[in-house]
């Protein structure tokens, strides 16, 4: 019994310390966020804003001190209502998603929770499944995305998917082919699209070569070889402290039939892709170095 | 409602002897003439309810339909007992249901309501957060004992074209919790329920009386179809256990599986191993259709549902 209370006290101390590590006004914005919670603080997908105290402090530390993220034009994201954030994807580990989500919690007023869609095997992982669910991540099915948008959610999509994040450094900042799913979703639900260009993530883990066979053997989508990984062991898998730059574009509205041919929907996707290319190019133009 | 007569409508409730059957009977007998059917001995029933103690597969049930004109059948006589021999379980559920539909067609009963369950969809990591009525019934992919319930649900679905003259209503409620003796209620009554370490799925619970209300609404002439029925908005399992004041014991999945398997074979527990998926993955339903077409809305919030979990059940028959 006493063990129990000691553990409770330790847990409470830890929680207090985590909350104290955030600026009070930031935490206030996060916990007061309107995510359509019920009386018990959960949204239908199991997201609990209060739970972010376990995740946000580390993400904010990465955001402010490690990647020192520069944010441009975040006010272009609507303050409320459904919106799709469409971004380029890079850097071997999806920290670009984490930084984007953090920017919407820290620099967007009022804070908005970015919901991203996770793979369907994520719910089979102990701890990870419940942690991600409490942090607002949702299993990626069409119906779930529709419901999120109907509830006025903000969904982040990387239409390049694995193709984008796993590409080697020689193709840095080239956009891979985009999937069409997000556009069909936007057309169907009449959701505006905000294109986002992420600059910096490419250099966090510059892959020289993708050892596909080994990745396949280990059941991973890719096995990148970088100058430091696997040469330096686990330490080599640390992302480099590059500087992130996030560029939010003007909201784009599309009209048309969601079930049109790929050719027609593809042309609309191309417009979004062009907008992202533009944003990335602007970021590359404006930066003087990779690490500062 | 039928114009010809002003007599009370006559409703047959099969499986009236269960805790849930009793709840339905107590509500319906106020407005309907209720005839109960059960093979078990039925007690604690309002005086004006006539109960026929008969197995629904037997000939003698036909008399219930021959004797008087029946306006509706509420079919609750569906066995959910993983310990019963599978063959008997299947026989009773499928053959019994077929018999009921056969009799309804023969005696021109205009309405049949069947109580299925949201469990027919089955918990699965790939599930949509909220499953609609047209979702595939995947509950049987790992859990054999539920296959007859799925077959039953499917069989009832065929009556939409086989007997278009009968208004068939299939209700698929989420976990009915409270004064009933079903698996979710038994689980929540445990002082130290076992949970899976690292898993905490969202759950939908519903109060017995709200499901009775859904049945009442389904009796409305003109209503037919398949309806998911859900109660208040979902909450995580951990919150439910905390509100009940339980002290859950979390164990790693492999350990818990091995334990349950052993306990099951030694007949120390009645928890089939595949049911663990219910405390691991989501199996929740979208009940918009019921709210729009049936006019259903839940009355009992979570606190009321959980209050009823702790109430001792009257002696079961």
How does this model look, in words?
The complex is a heterodimer of chains A (292) and B (317). Chain A has 292 residues and is α/β, with parallel strands linked by helices. Chain A has a single domain, classed as Glycerol-3-phosphate (1)-acyltransferase (3-Layer(aba) Sandwich). In chain A, the strands form two sheets. Chain A has a seven-stranded mixed β-sheet with strand order 1-9-6-2-5-3-4, sandwiched between helices. Chain A has a two-stranded antiparallel sheet with strand order 7-8. Chain B has 317 residues and is α/β, with parallel strands linked by helices. Chain B has a domain of 214 residues: 3-Layer(aba) Sandwich (Rossmann fold). In chain B, the strands form four sheets. A seven-stranded parallel β-sheet of chain B has the order 3-2-1-4-5-6-11, with helices on both faces. Chain B has a two-stranded parallel sheet with strand order 7-10. In chain B, helix 1 links the parallel strand 1 and strand 2. In chain B, helix 1 crosses helix 6. The mean pLDDT of chain B is 93. The chains are: A alpha/beta (292), B alpha/beta (317). At the A-B interface, helix 5, strand 4 and helix 6 of A face strand 12 of B.
In short:
By secondary structure, chain A is an alpha/beta fold. Chain A has helices at residues 2-20, 24-31, 56-66, 95-106, 128-134, 142-150, 162-165, 181-189, 212-217, 262-286, and strands at 70-72, 83-87, 114-118, 138-139, 154-157, 193-199, 209-210, 224-225, 245-248. Chain B has a domain at 9-177 and 205-231 and 283-300: NAD(P)-binding Rossmann-like Domain (Rossmann fold), CATH 3.40.50.720.
List keywords for this structure.
heterodimer; A: 292 residues; alpha/beta; Glycerol-3-phosphate (1)-acyltransferase; seven-stranded mixed sheet; two-stranded antiparallel ribbon; 10 helices; 12% strand; globular; B: 317 residues; Rossmann fold
